[in-house]
Amino acid sequence: MSQSLKAKMIIDKSFRIAEVDKRIYGSFIEHLGRAVYGGIYEPSHPLANESGFRSDVKELVKELDVPIIRYPGGNFVSGYNWEDGVGPVADRPKRLELAWRTVEPNEIGTNEFFQWTREVGSEVMMAVNLGTRGIDAARNLVEYCNHPGGSYWSDLRRSHGVEQPHKIKTWCLGNEMDGPWQIGHKTMHEYGRIALEAAKVMRWVDPDIELVACGSSNTGMTTFPEWEAVTLDHTYDAVDYISLHQYYGNRDNDTENFLALTMDLDHFIHTIKSTCDYIKAKKRSKKTMMLSFDEWNVWFHSNEADSKMEPWQIAPPQLEDIYTFEDALLVGSMLITFLRHADRVRMACLAQLVNVIAPIMTENNGRAWKQTIFYPYMHASRFGRGVSLMPVVDSPKYDSKDFTDVPYLDSAVVYNEENEELTIFAVNRNLNDALELNCDVRSFEGFEIVEHLVMESDDLKATNSAAQEKVAPRSGGSAKLDGGVVSASLNKASWNVIRLAKK
Rounded to whole angstroms, how far apart are CA atoms 262 and 320? Predict the structure, then answer.
């Protein structure tokens, strides 16, 4: 007979962390695998529109309500000539794409992608190539995208049928430049210098843009976190964000340890915040550096298949992880971690959006479907808008292989004052027992429970497919409100969304 564990929370509207920047629910489309060709774009598909974009995929992206999408990479951008992707499609070159060893046909480029993001109600986070290119190509791309007209590059855009400027606000200064795998890999001083000079001229073209400098590719890099310190020593006054990237995997099939990996994520964020604040103090700056977690996800299932892939194909099925139920629990916990750091994490991009380590999958000329990770991402994006609150949590804990004192209850709370809604996101990490949760919500007088969404499965390795959705949320969880206290039984290994609203 399984015993019942108890956890307590106190939620008060005065305990504010920060307003949630909706861009923490961003995503990423790279010219990689079937993300673009066969993903968002498939002209031969029966559901493709006149531009070749799949309407079924667009509807799923809209369901997620993705506010910003990073483009066109990723490793791809460090070898990309943006000029290859504009102008008449028939005149565009096919190129060997060295980052992922494929052939890039350049049928989709800057203007087409911008148009697609408008159709799905999103903004673009544009990355510039600081690998094989540099400050000249970067400033020209800003001019092409954002200058109204009357100059060479802006008039070239207009000659391509795009009269109005795109006014892209957010720009990444390269990608993972600390990584030896990166085309044009740089030392921290080399990168700091080129990022500063690129930032300078890009802002001279358009003073309204905001800029993201490359942080470490992951916490395992030998240069972490010195890379951030040196890079920001060069660029602190010129940029608005430093990027963080992190992928996790359950390679040892140790689910207790896997679900505790957000302890590492939390440590990563604290370390980068400290590094940024050290440079702030060193420079006597009044500016606080914000964080852009512009690549994050679970990624490991497809590694073996990718290592056997034949090179130089167009849009082969690369990085097509099929996600399990336990992956969805970790993705939910990663979103919870971002919400708890809403004062500094202002943007985050789930990498990626379609087919490539993605919540949305497609069949070529066939169906589009939702992976297990689709749901926690959708719930957070839909219900996690407002002010992130700091709950006082008392939870039983466990030790895993790599972590001690891991709370069974992983939670974040968002208060939407305008709509008078309160949302509790909660993961029960316990694999065997339910968690009895009591939440003191007395400061939310007149609120009542709207719904308690639950996602659970007796099979931690359950996956979805085009033919069958084994893992999906259900309404009708046990949450009740009585005397200013929410009580709920959080089933073993479950994702929970408890929503309250004013009567």
Answer: 23
Q: What is the mean pLDDT of residues 217-225?
A: 95
Contact 145, 168 (CB under 8 A): yes
Active site residue 30: no
Reported as a single tens digit per residue, the pLDDT across 284-320 is: 999 999 999 999 999 999 999 999 999 999 999 999 9
pLDDT at 129 over 50: yes
DSSP notation for 246-277: EEE--TT--HHHHHTTHHHHHHHHHHHHHHHH
Residue of 42, 112, 123, 176 with catalytic role: 176
% residues pLDDT > 70 (the chain): 99
For the question of residue 176 being annotated catalytic, the response is yes
Number of neighbouring beta carbons within 10 Å of residue 219: 16
Burial of 37 (0-12, 13-18, 19+ CB in 10 A): buried
Whole-prediction pTM value? Answer: 0.97
CB atoms within 10 A of CB 240: 18
Is there a contact between 293 and 342 (Cβ–Cβ < 8 Å)? no
| pLDDT band with cut points at 50, 70 and 90 for residue 3 | low
* Catalytic residue from among 30, 83, 197, 295: 295
Q: Token pair for residue 421?
A: 């809604």
